Amino acid sequence: MRKKLLATTVLVIALAAGQAPVRAVNGELDGNAHPNVGVMLVQNAAGDIFEFCGGVLISPTVFLTN
Fold it and tell me: Out of 30, 31, 32, 56, which residue is the most buried by the measure of CB atoms under 10 Å away?
């Protein structure tokens, strides 16, 4: 299991190193310029929605945060 986690981590780092840096767009949608970049949202009991953490989708079911 540890070897699989290490291999996955190395792969993610290698893929990220080959990508151009992502630039912030001040919360504005930028079309398809960054299709895998997103933010996790949290809703409190009063119904207010807040940004919790930004990150990138590295597969259809995995969201990598920083």
Answer: 56
